[in-house]
Amino acid sequence: VKFSELTIDMFRMLQALEREPINLASQLNKTGSQEPTEKPSKRENPHKYLLYKPTFSQLYTFLSASFKELPGNSVLLVYLSATGVFPTGRCDYEGPYDFGGVLTNNNRDAGSMEVIQKRNNSFKEMHCLHPGDFFPFTRKPLFLIVDSSNSIAYKNFINLFGQPLVCLLSPTAYPKGLQDQTQRGSLFTLFLYNPLMAFLFMCRLTSMRKGMWDKCQEYLHKIYRDIAHLLTKSRTVGPGGVDDSSNPAQTSKFTPEKAEMTEKLQ
């Protein structure tokens, strides 16, 4: 991906998935040699593919490659940030291709939304990434993050193969005072990247004392530990995760796994 195509949301997700650097001094042997005592058996950070405005075929190609390369005891993480595609009508049977999804690049000049609306209602939008398009990849653990105006389309995601499955969906509407802030990046992605920074942004606070910041970070780390403890000890969390659909605009299924891949649409 080119630097000019690195959006702020993509940058934040990259940072969220990067592991903290290891202190090299702790890896030096006792003789003072500059060579580490042991070479790492695997890459320190998850392998990632960054796709900016990909077509459906490009996205599916990289998804297939990532699925093939996924090592054992790992999970495929897919992050989608794209324009929502909404269903054009009601069907007698609502399947995984009847709720719409997110729009991929159609290799044409934009103005494409008018083309989508004028398309024959009896056909599905061919450039839409539907929930059903991910079903083949649920044969392995999958963590799906969708940031879109139609993220709710993925709420009815079906776990066909009993593998760990996580669907983390953005709200479809934001408070009125925050609707004009999209040029600064998605608020949903900002909360994933740094919850404390997102909270300050919502409160219109531009600065904080370092001592207060450190104290708030300690509270956040405690919350993370408590959540992880509850999830790992809970008897209600099965292979498919736990579904929290109390917010009709947001569904979350949590299963703690290792991230392996990020995808970006715009």
UniProtKB/TrEMBL annotation:
Q: Where is the composition biased (Polar residues)?
A: 244-254
Q: Pfam families this protein is in?
A: SCAI
Specify where the region named Disordered lies, as residue ranges.
238-266
GO term, biological process aspect, one:
DNA-templated transcription
Residue ranges, compositional bias (Basic and acidic residues): 255-266
Which GO terms of the molecular function aspect are on file? transcription corepressor activity
The name on file for this protein is Protein SCAI
UniProt organism field: Scyliorhinus torazame
